[in-house]
Design goal:
By secondary structure, this protein is α/β, with parallel strands linked by helices. Helices cover 49% and strands 14% of the residues.
Length: 319
């Protein structure tokens, strides 16, 4: 029933969860020697071997286009595709789009799932809150059937643009919060900053035609607060290591797995440029990652961002 592409932690957790009720196959570049709790889930090592009706993509966002394009453009035609990865991608014309937008070029039934979820907690049967987003009413009903049983608590949204955007937004913010926590060690600063950036998110969603209330949903502030605050977050770890003086490349090596926030920030900056939107928050994080800001002025810049979470249209600026 489900072909899950990506046998990392999240893909494996989803496979384990869904296999309790449905046939599942797990597809990765290499088969895992053992799966959680020794569950007998068929494994394959080629994306083109996907065979079930419903495709779930849980691989790295940056690899999504190269993996999904030959699959969806080939002989295998799943009836639906569910995006379980977060972030934006670049299309064939160089424009930044959401993953659901890309997949909808090949399929009508497309959805994404997001929320404050860690794979290990789902594997341990702990409560996990997810939000599904799709414009297809029948697929929305299917998502509720597939995912709305313990330990997952599932809600729905028709704002797939907002849900997709929030998934990209929270990653570089977690880098920022990790940096600030390591540098200043101030819980007050952390939560003042998170509150401010969530206002930026709401303003941004309104500007791009999404629902600003999505910023305050489990896919918005729920996922944002969790990713920023828990040390197993790779993006938070990246920020902590940058504050300690490591370069991005060295920090990435020390973390040992992909830190999506670096690519997410690049795509968010490009997307906002496409929309003629100026976001000082993104520019600040980019300068921080690039080492263009001296530590002694970080606090002053942060205060300015917290006190003024506004964004502006580029045509209204003298630049």
């Amino acid at each position: 029933m489900f072909s899950i592409i990506g046998n990392g932690h999240w893909g494996t957790a989803l496979a384990y969860y869904l296999s309790q009720q449905y046939p599942v196959e797990l597809i990765g570049r290499r088969c895992k020697e053992s799966l959680y709790n020794q569950v007998d889930i068929p494994q394959k090592t080629s994306w083109e071997q996907a065979s079930y009706d419903h495709l779930i993509y849980a691989g790295p966002t940056m690899a999504a286009k190269s993996i999904l394009k030959p699959i969806l453009g080939g002989d295998y035609k799943p009836s639906s595709c569910i995006i379980a990865s977060k972030g934006l991608i670049e299309d064939e014309q160089g424009l930044i789009i959401t993953l659901p937008d890309f997949v909808s070029n090949y399929l009508k039934r497309v959805a994404l799932i997001s929320g404050p979820s860690f794979a290990n907690e789902l594997l341990d049967n702990k409560p996990t809150f997810l939000m599904g987003a799709t414009s297809d009413a029948t697929l929305a009903n299917d998502l509720d059937t597939w995912f709305n049983h313990g330990p997952i608590h599932f809600s729905q949204s028709d704002d797939y643009l907002g849900v997709a955007f929030t998934g990209a937004f929270k990653n570089p913010i977690a880098i920022l919060i990790g940096y600030v926590d390591a540098l200043l060690m101030s819980a007050n600063m952390r939560f003042a900053l998170i509150t401010s950036v969530n206002q930026v998110l709401a303003n941004l969603l309104s500007k791009i035609g999404a629902d600003p209330s999505t910023a305050y949903s489990i896919a918005g502030q729920g996922d944002l607060f969790m990713t920023c605050s828990i040390d197993i977050s790779r993006n938070r770890q990246m920020g902590q290591l940058l504050a300690q003086g490591y370069s991005v490349d060295v920090a990435q090596t020390k973390i040992g797995s992909i830190v999506e926030g670096i690519a997410s920030l690049k795509h968010l900056l490009a997307y906002c440029k496409q929309k003629n939107i100026h976001v000082p928050l993104f520019e600040f994080i980019n300068d921080l990652i690039s080492g263009k800001i001296e530590k002694k002025v970080v606090f002053k810049r942060l205060i300015a961002l917290i006190e003024n979470p506004a964004i502006e249209n580029l045509q209204n600026l003298d630049v």
